[in-house]
Amino acid sequence: MSDQVPIVTLSIDGRPVTVPKGTTIWTAARGAGIDVPIFCYHDRMPPLGACRMCLVNVEKTPKLVTSCTQEAAEGMVVSTTTPDVKAGQEAILEFLLINHPLDCPICDKGGECPLQDQTFRYGPGRSRYVEVKRDFAKPVSLGPALVLDRERCILCWRCVRFGEIIAGDDALKGFERGFTSEINTPFTLPAASKFIGNTIAICPVGALTSRTYRFVSRPWDNQRVPSVCTFCGVGCAVFFDVRGNTIMRTQAREAPDLNDIWLCDLGFFGHGYVQHAERLQQPLIRKDGDLQPASWDEALDLVARKIRATAPGRVALLAGARLTNEDAYVAARVFRTVVGTPHLDHRLDTRADGPSLGVSWGMTSPIGEIPTRDLFLLVGCDLTEEYPVLWLRMKQAVDRGAAIIAITPKALEIDRFVAHHLVHDYHEGSAVLAALAQAAGGDSPKTGEVGGVDLGRIALAGEALRGAKRPMVMIGKTALEAADGETMYAEVEDLCGKFGIKPSIMRGRGNAFGAALAGLLPNTSPGGRPLAQVRGDLETVWGAPVAVEPGLSGPHIIEAAGRGELDVLYIAGADPSSDVLDRSRWAAARSRLPFLVVVDAFLTETAQAADVVLPALVIPEKNGTVSNIEGRVQRVHAAVSGPGEARGDWQILSGLAVRLGRTIAYSGWEEIFNEMKTLIPGLEVDAIVPLAAPARAVSAPGAQKSDGRETAADGEYPLALIVGDVLFDRGSMSGRSPAIADLAREPWAMLHPDDAARATVADGDPIVLTARRGSIAVMARVSKAVLPGHVYVPRGYDAAPVNAIVGAGEAVTRVRVRALVTVAGGQGNG
Amino acid sequence: MNDRRRSTILRYARQGVAMLRGLGVTFRYLFKRPITIRYPEEKRTAVQPRFKGRHWLTLYGDGMERCVGCELCVIVCPSQAIYVKAAENTPEHQVSKGERYAAEFQINELRCIFCGFCEEACPTGAIVLGREYELAGYTRESMIYTKPMLTEPYPGSSGRDPQREV
Ligand code: SF4
Ligand code: SF4
Ligand code: SF4
Ligand code: SF4
Ligand code: FES
After folding, report:
1. Pairwise CA distance, residues A496 & A471, whole Å
2. Which has fewest Cβ within 10 Å: A267, A325, A361, B4?
3. Is the model's pLDDT at A228 over the cut of 90?
4. A149: closest chain B residue by CA
């Protein structure tokens, strides 16, 4: 095998180096441990040859050559230290510094700056330039997170090329020429990117810096704590840089099979909530109608008393994505054995009758394989909004020729990389999928249209699908939670069957996968096997009887509570009030629920209505493990200690267990993890541990029930409402991270220009969306990304909760749009 | 035997002479003016020109702080005595020249070994070691000098020329 790859041998600084043909001199030198300074070259992008820092001497060439662009050839004699190379390096550095302000003492890059380091190591030590330096106004704000200092920029083009090559969003561009060249955003608008933090990381000087990290720390102040980002489900490897007891910044930690060296901006700038002043510091108990501070003993005693006084089957647990795997496991153990209830789940934001509850969430193949796929089928999955870093990996595949077919009701941001973008009428997704499946089979009419999509385009997509060798299929929330979600899922599964693969279920944020793995599901044990199958093991390890009858799932728990069938609900790290698809269901549940315990970091809407609120730690404050969407188990280290008396979830639960008469105590996360290992085969840190078997339950018969109802437009409510998840929102955590709240901007809704014109609404206008159940006030964004007759509203804005106007029973919620006329001095009111 | 006795006598004689010589020095100085002073009742008028005492954070003539909060003094300090937390100047609140200033500045004078490295590292000539050597306190906390304590009361009061660029 190895002799098929042509090999060249060259000598670098007298050392023979053998590399595959096509390798550049710079890469060959690095492989041999020889350091050649660079600025513009970055090994995740092709060479450019802009900065000339990497000059080396190659025998028999008249001039110095740039080693980052020059391919190594057989018999080449390269030298990196000869006097002419030294002179070249000094000249380049002197030249780069001519217009450099040398304000290192102020610059945030100081102490970790390649320009500083290389000037120190390779520079001439003094400058002959006495003339006036280039003078730009500084700093320039390029959006909520990014700050540019044009004087410091050495025009290496790394940031520009990141947008062109890695992210594909062209967020930054170069303008002007020569002396006045500068980097800026197109039209000097705020940088339109979800990945801008990466440009800060790769800028070799302090030209691009972060607004959240501005002047707050120096590299030598920071303690780097390896951890995992748990905002979305990708679970990127990060470092938290901690000074004192504060997270100063988040940086990417290299993980080739996961996030490589990248993060998205939610990961980069979203840690602000951890230190927010509104973090809960001590337990609260409702006394005389108000939540009042109490001691842990008081609060836990009260919770235990209520649970004891209740029949086990009338207690339920909803535990969300803020939990580590160990927390989730202890929660499952305590509720299944000590409390004795089977009603536990981590899934809330699903239809009670949809397909989401019947499938196991997560990817069916590793993230590391994405770059090698040749076709992606995205069904109702808004990749950059929901799992942003996966897009960066997918872009690598696209660059190698992979095609994307996307079937979504709203055009994706990555539109120009989607070869076959089938943007359909919201309620017609299954029809489009059926047509695609037919086209993939080779027989489909080429004219006409289905669900607003031209059949000719579906035919082309079908052809592409037919020719795929290593396809990957992802179905997301928008599809699964649509009225025809069940049908769409069945069609996707069929389609996958033809390729012998399984669709990846792109659902779940945070550590939802860890929760499922640890057993926070009503019908499975830790590891995902059916309870009946592992009952014996469970009872041995847990030392208590375990019931095998399936309990209620998240949405059903809420419905049961609404019917008055539950007495105690324990919610850890979930906020049903904003998470459930239909807020009225939660309101009904709350009003009939005698006792509600909420364990959270903030006084969320749900917590405000609770009887007992317990302050919890968040993931950057915990030790343990978390799982990501591909099932990878990763270690998190406590970076900072929590506020006040806040406690970790498993510690709270073990305190509760004691009060319920059973000692479930652990010395630390390791002991819990080891216990989990006995129940979950293959569980190891850094291993990919998928759920044993998809917990495919018989789907609820209600799926078809709602189909066809209220789909027809009526004059009063002409627009179909599409609800989706966005990366930057203003929820309980993101809204408290200032940079994210800024990136999210005001709550918004997206309309087609035709509909906007009809309602005399322009881009940026305040509008009111009214449905049968109520209305919300939002900002209009006018775009052709949605089809006429549709309006897209993101979830996650506490100020404009879209779940307040959605009815879970409706197949499609219909709304009308009115411009919001603000009366001078008064407040517009929907 | 005899030899041993003789050498013992000789040794005692030598020691006696040495003692007398030493006492001679004592007596000689007994009648001279003393070199030491009765500190703290009496104090020297001036310390040596390169003496290093307590720190000052100096100001420019226009009252702007020289310190830009760069933390170079922090990293160079061999006894980790300095803590700096920087912040951003705004047009309404311009504390130093440039974009950055030290919002917090503390020196633990108990830890400081008065090496002067901080003064040497400072790119703006902000931190200087003054002449004051009376550094004592009743608590450890009182010896952590904060920014208001360190900042010179008026430009030039620490002895650094406020017109000097660096
Ligand atoms: S801003 Fe930084 S990354 Fe971009 S061109 Fe300038 S120096 Fe290079
Ligand atoms: S992609 Fe997801 S896990 Fe990765 S940095 Fe962004 S929010 Fe965090
Ligand atoms: S004089 Fe030396 S020991 Fe004292 S603060 Fe300055 S650098 Fe530190
Ligand atoms: S005193 Fe000087 S070295 Fe120390 S932070 Fe201020 S400017 Fe920097
Ligand atoms: S690194 Fe080779 S030219 Fe810039």
Report:
1. 9
2. B4
3. yes
4. B99
Nearest of A455, A469, A459 to residue A374 by alpha carbon = A469
Q: How far apart, in whole angstroms, are the C-alpha atoms of residue B22 and residue B17?
A: 9
Count of domains observed in chain B: 2
* Token code pair at residue B162: 């406020």
On whether both B72 and B1 belong to a single domain, the answer is: no
Residue at B158 is within a domain: no
Residue-level pLDDT at A178: 86
* Same domain? B80 vs B143: yes
Question: In the block, which residue shows the tokens 């008055």?
Answer: A564
Helix and strand numbers, DSSP H then E, in chain A:
24, 35
Determine, for residues B74 and A218 on separate chains, whether the beta-carbon distance falls below 8 Å: yes
Distance from CA of A129 to the nearest CA of B (A): 20
pLDDT of residue A366 exceeding 50: yes
Strand ordering across the sheet containing A595-600: A290-293, A284-287, A612-615, A595-600, A568-572, A315-319, A344-345
B38 located within any domain: no
**Cβ atoms A19, A5 nearer than 8 A:** no
Q: Is B121 in the pocket of ligand 3 (CB under 6 A)?
A: no
Token pair belonging to B113: 């070994």
A219 touches chain B (CB under 8 A): no
Q: Which residues of B sit within 8 Å Cβ distance of A?
A: 68-72, 74-75, 85-88, 98-100, 123-124
- Rounded CA-CA distance A449/A468 in Å is 24
**The domain containing residue B106 runs over which residues?**
55-150
Q: How confident is the model at residue A56 (pLDDT cuts 50, 70, 90)?
A: very high
**d(CA A157, nearest CA chain B) in Å:** 25
Residue A6: burial class (beta carbons within 10 Å; 0-12, 13-18, 19+): exposed
More confident residue, A26 or A446: A26
